[in-house]
Design brief:
By secondary structure, the chain is an alpha+beta fold. It folds into two domains: 47 residues; 163 residues, 2-Layer Sandwich (Alpha-Beta Plaits), CATH 3.30.70.270. It is built from seven helices and six strands, in the order αααβααββαβββα. A four-stranded antiparallel β-sheet has the order 2-3-1-6, with helices on both faces. A two-stranded antiparallel sheet has the order 4-5.
């Protein structure tokens, strides 16, 4: 079923009509217009809820890919606009890509419900770590993203180090067994004029480079133990 929604112009016209009916004492028209105003308010609330659902990850409750891309797009517009306005204390920010290292193993060994629990734990951890001006999202699967706004890599280094330590210290109990969660991160600083695709590509490359290094270190450690 297709639902027609009134534009903001229509809403303003209706509010004006209500005020006019009150001033002229036309009670019947006033009641009709009040009912119409109630319907409009319900429609606007519905639109807001639909937009929230469209931009929220159903499993974890944080932003989904669509929602995060909207936020990131507005953030890039902000830094570009501030540069054009000649803002002296202009700050860009950081895009942080996060990929779980052992997610497939969790799913294969403990089942998809355990995998979902791991994703929820990571999302909750990210939400607790960010400021109101930042954003966290799930891009799909076991891939997450964080936006640190109005900062630089140097200024955010302690937060980044704490985040890496926290994400690689996570664990949860599932059916009486403790399951560890581990993650690799990739970081890319953004500035005025940068394109979303280029920033994501650079952060993604850095993340997979770190993931490969961690895997190589684990293999080397295993060989050392085997030859000990």
């Amino acid at each position: 079923m297709h639902t027609e929604y009134l534009s903001q112009h229509d809403v303003n016209a209706l509010n004006k009509a209500i005020i006019t009916s009150i001033k002229t004492g036309n009670r019947s028209v006033h009641h009709i217009l009040k009912d119409a105003q109630r319907v409009i308010a319900e429609q606007q609330a519905r639109i807001t809820e639909l937009n929230r659902l469209a931009t929220t990850d159903e499993l974890t409750g944080i932003l989904n890919r669509r929602g995060f891309m909207q936020v990131f797009g507005r953030e890039l517009d902000r830094v570009t606009r501030e540069k054009k306005n000649g803002l002296k204390r202009l700050k860009g920010g950081l895009l942080i890509m996060i990929d779980l290292d052992n997610f497939k193993g969790i799913n294969d060994i403990h089942g998809h419900a355990a995998g979902d629990a791991a994703l929820k734990l990571v999302a909750k951890t990210l939400q607790m770590d960010i400021r109101k001006m930042d954003a966290a999202g799930r891009m799909g699967g076991d891939e997450f993203v964080i936006l640190f706004t109005s900062t630089s890599r140097e200024q955010a280094i302690e937060r980044i180090q704490r985040l890496i330590k926290t994400l690689n210290s996570l664990s949860f109990i599932w059916e009486g067994k403790e399951i560890d969660v581990r993650a690799s991160l990739g970081i890319k600083e953004y500035k005025p004029g940068d394109k979303i695709g280029r920033i994501f590509s650079a952060a993604d490359t850095a993340m997979y480079s770190n993931k490969s290094r961690i895997k190589d270190d684990a293999i080397s450690s295993s060989k050392e133990v085997a030859h000990a």
